[in-house]
Amino acid sequence: MRGIRGSLVALLLLSVGLLPGTAQANLVFVLNSGEASISLLDAARREQIRRIPVLREPHHLVLTPDGRSLVVGDSAGNELLFFDPATGELQRRERISNPYHLDFSPDGRWLVIASLRRGQIDIYEAPGEDGGLRLVRRHRFPHMPSHMAFSPDSRTVYLTLQGAGRVVAISLETMEVLWQAEVGPEPAGILWHRGQLIVGIMGRDHFAVLDPELRQVVRTIPIGRGAHAIFAAPGGQVLWATSRVDSRVAAIDPESLRVLQVFEIPGGPDCLAFDAEGRVWMTLRWVGRVGRLDPETGQVETIRVGRSPHGIFVHWPRGAEGPAAPPSAQR
Amino acid sequence: MKALEILEEAYDALLGRLFEDAVQPALYALGLMHWSESAFEWIEFSLFGLLSIVVSYAVCRPLEAWRPVEAVRDRRAIRTDIVYTLLSRLGLLPILAFVLLSFLKIHWEGLVADAGVIPPTLETLLPWLRDWPLLAFLLYVVVLDFGEYWRHRFQHMFRWWWALHSIHHAQRQMTFWTDNRNHVIDDAIAALWFSGLAVLIGVPPAQFPLILLILTVIESLSHANARLHFGRVGERLIVSPRFHRVHHGELSAGEKGRNYAVLFPVWDLLFGTADFDSRTPARTGDPDGPEALATGGWLRQQTEGLRYLMRSIARPRRSGGSQPSGTD
To answer: Does residue A4 lie in a domain region?
Structure first.
């Protein structure tokens, strides 16, 4: 009797798409920066199901705070594209100046956009019901502003300045620059982690841990030459970092910041995303592919996409995400 | 389709290996990792240059062997043209200019963005083009080809520019290798012209090498030593070896030029410079130009071309013509 009841419950959950791992197919969005397109992959079948043309050069993407839209920045095309993350349907476009890297503040109030080539850091009011963006403040930094991270209280945004070897902190209360700190040559990815900032030092073989109070690098985490970007896995159990010259993906213990495991993955791993089964998806920048790493077995499968794939996003079907693992953590 | 995918995969694998094993470690050692994405594009463009040579050879050489217009008399002259081709297509002047101009454009756009303006592209001006990427691509080719027609006309029209361009017309043993036989200054101007227009109309960077590949292969074919006629309609659609050989005929040098089009003869039809009637001329070359431009090696032609340019600027215009007189 219990078996029959269990099956009925499972059938019911399946019918409303709430059963983890067995619901609708996961969609994976891959931004082909060298080919002016977005590859839409079926994660289960591990194949491309659609290629969406964009204007010029899509690099990074972010989920809106309400989870209803996936925002893609087409930097050379001067456009933001809003997609339904579940279906890949285009919702709307917004003309905007050179959006390279972009992210929402944790309180959802601000959308910060960095323009690497144009040397701009733009702070917008996040799109409201009418969908429009309003530029609140533009800072000019002729030092290739690149990736960004926020303090959890949404008071400060931190950006790496690739050409200057520094991190800049900007207040989201006054919109003024608070300070700049030296971190090492050519910093790229940056992550807020337990009161500190972890920064990929692309011109070196390590990540730098920057204390925002002291404004000093307090330690380093050796990964491999060309340390690039770092991401927290959903639930925060592991930090994952990439190095582009030595072509590695490394798992880092979030407590001790010790490297737990290193995976050698040719192709220049760049941005990462995580699926509901705990696998790590990555863009392999120099070989036109994405990789899917199973950390349990160390096995890597690759799927062909467009040229120079950069940003990546894995959509989780309804019910797949637990309370500790919101999809927005995949940014 | 499968074969194309295999080729594309092989190309990407080669590109990836080249970049990961050679270029990126060098950038890291030099502290230039923040240029890695641009360097990757540059390597891709270089490979395209090599690919364009291979494709041009595969298309043109069999045609030249099948139906030559004339017997090969001067292999040395052809060898000089091969040097030109290697230097030009692997030297990547057009690509470098495109990259440089892209940076200028980015800074210019930054200033414009501060004024609240976002520069347009063909697709933002004509939004329906977003749904027709192939048509958009063809439109970009048409606009660029129109620009090339006028650059070519100006090369024949202006006295100083003809002095540079006459190296190209001096070849008496014209083959598909002749396409890149140009003075380096002329190449630099051409690169700025072509790339400037490409940036101005917002050509997507990913499409630029493909446009370049199509143009270079057709330009190579148009110079081929092949008795090839595309028929009454075809001759008016795409530049043929016959059409372009008329342009290179001895009687068509300098201001007397005809058939300037690079890809689409429609521009010659529109602007009254088309000649669809003449037969394939037996002789090509510029009888008024310095002898060294025809028979010298690469270096000799370059230095003599520079002198020719200086003379054309220094000497007053002769009545009845715009060309500097040849002295060699």
So the answer is: no
Q: Measured between CB atoms, does A285 come within 8 Å of chain B? A: yes
**Other Cβ atoms closer than 10 A to A94:** 16
- The band of B324, judged by pLDDT with boundaries at 50, 70 and 90, is very low
Task: Give the number of other CB atoms < 10 A from CB of residue B173.
Answer: 21
Q: CA of A20 to nearest chain B CA: how many angstroms apart?
A: 35
Q: Does the pLDDT value for residue B310 go beyond 90?
A: yes
Whole-number Cα distances in Å, B48 to A136, B15, B44 = 43, 10, 6
What the block records as the tokens of B315 is: 């000497």
| Cα four-point dihedral sign A117, A122, A125, A126 | positive
Strand order in A156-161's β-sheet?
Answer: A145-150, A156-161, A166-171, A177-182
Per-residue burial over A259-268, b if 16 or more Cβ lie within 10 Å, else e, is beeebebbbb
Residue A154 inside a domain? The answer is: yes
Which residue spans within A43-155 are E strands per DSSP? 47-53, 58-63, 70-74, 79-83, 90-95, 101-104, 110-115, 120-125, 134-140, 145-150
Contact pairs from chain A to chain B, CB under 8 Å: 105
Q: Do A55 and B110 touch (CB under 8 A)?
A: no
Query: Is A323 within the bounds of a domain?
Result: yes
What residues in B contact A267, CB-CB < 8 Å? 16, 20
Q: What is the residue extent of each domain of chain B?
A: 70-314
Query: Which position has the token pair 């960095």?
Result: A114
Select from A55, A95, A245 the Cβ nearest to the Cβ of B24: A245
Q: Which domain holds residue A116?
A: 21-330
Give residue-wise pLDDT tens across range B6-48: 877 888 888 899 999 999 999 999 999 988 887 887 787 778 7
Q: Is residue A5 part of a domain?
A: no
- pLDDT above 50 (res A7): no
Q: Interface pTM (ipTM) of the complex?
A: 0.79
Residues of chain A positioned with their CB less than 8 A from the CB of B16: 266-268, 286-288
Number of domains composing chain A = 1
N residues, chain B: 328
Nearest CA in chain A to B111: A118
User: Which CATH number goes with the domain that contains A286?
Assistant: 2.130.10.10
Q: In terms of CA atoms, which chain A residue is nearest residue B5?
A: A304
